[in-house]
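Fold it.
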Amino acid sequence: MLIGLAMNDAGGYNAESMWGPSTDPAWKRNDPMVNINQLVANNTRIWIYCGTGTPSDLDAGTNGGNLMAAQFLEGLTLRTNVTFRDNYIAAGGTNGVFNFPANGTHAWGYWGQQLQQMKPDIQRVLGAQSAT
């Protein structure tokens, strides 16, 4: 419920728009936490990034209300991602990158940086050549 409220506040987003309500079988089918054993068995490459909710210079200019929501969401997400990492490793997972820096809120500036860090890994996994 809190995620839905925060998403609506951030721009009218609906938490059920991706996989439907949490009671829908599609939700479980696409939930990585539920599918850890399959991810490990398939040796699926995963990359998990999550900040702590502590703002940095990337949040400069963000209005107070949006920043508070971004801090809350990232803090909540961090706990879930750390639990996922621990369960993944306990299940024998070895093909994952887990990046939990000291700063970072739920905002595009951080995700853009992380995508740049991921780019060589994505290209390698997909067998794509670098354009640079």
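Residues 1-31 form one domain.
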